[in-house]
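Bumping with the actual sequence this time:
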Amino acid sequence: MASAEELIESGLAHARAEQWTAAADSFRRALAADRHSAEAAFRLGWALWHAARIEEPSLADLGVGYLAQLAGFEGLARDRARKFTAHKRRLNEAAHWLREALALSPQDARALYYLARTLRQLGYKEDAAEMARRAAEIEPDNQRYASLVSSMNAGPLDPLRQALGAPEAAPDSRTKLTWNDVILSPKTKRELRQVQLMLENPAMARDLGVEPPTGILLRGAPGTGKTTIARVLANEAKCKFFSITPADINQMFVGESEKRVQDLFARAREAAPSIIFIDEIDALLPARQGGVAVHYDKVVNQFLQEMDGMTPNERVLVIGATNREDMLDPAVRRGGRLSREIEIPMPDAEGRAALLALFTRNVKLHADVDLASIAEDCVQWSGADLRALVNEAGLQALIRIADGDGETAEKCVTAADFAEAIRTLTGRD
């Protein structure tokens, strides 16, 4: 049986011939022969990174996949999706073995360098910058390492600000969102106004015997405007707005995700009054299951601890948005956490007409456009769908004017443009 050293040499021979998959196989067998070989672990991660780089999907693949999905060519769309998934899986495996190499040999600048490049491709920019800096510190004369640090602008980093971003600045008064920019039922708007008033004046609420909520859950189908509603609430209540997604929190390093949850709440408390908005919260705080899902369970536990540590005078509100509330951990929805739930329903015919009127405020419409009639044709369309309809109608008008007689063509959006837009978006004949 070949030794680990012989298998590493075999792998390097494959690598010189740019046979990266074969090289990875040799390095994998070298690791099987010697589990404590830092060189074999590094070489395996190194080979996998090169293999991923060769197989990296192009912008053309992205475009073809997107167009195939729009056109209904599911087979082609799935093929392109598999290509992206395989590439990411290869990068994740490369990162794993490079970290294993560093666990065996912490001062291996080569492993730090390639781990930095791998993490950057995976989107973990702040972690990549840290790895690049460490490589350059170990070998300061290595120009490749210095160039990587420079390309990442890896000066002194504030990891928290890099990961979670700063709260959104107060918008210009001309672009500030208000309750007039959303169409909601009177019941839903009243519930949201109650939350706004408790944020603005918690002392008055307590005088009335009302404890301000620590969190609310916005439930509703995709496209019903949950994110917009959260922004409006922040603007109207004059709160700092922290918007995050599960991808901003979930990290590959052990303990890093929980730290980001802790840091997020710390920053929100410092910036109070503030709102933490978590889109697709069901993906961040799913029902705890243990076993292989223990990483997610720890994030849920940390989140619950932070919510339990909030006091009413902190003026920090957590808003979660979901269309799959059944996927949330039950403990998240109990009293003192996201106990207040507000349903954001799909608009009815009257609401759809009001939304169309809102979205066409700055659109030049022909006299034959009947927004109420169009709304009747758009049953079960969300606000996002209607906004897309208005935009598509404008595009139909643009091509009609460009293809027609510039002197006689109606230079506005007509009922026929809306009809063609509906056919385009629904696939109707």
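The tokens above came from a reply further down the thread. The longest strand covers residues 316-322.
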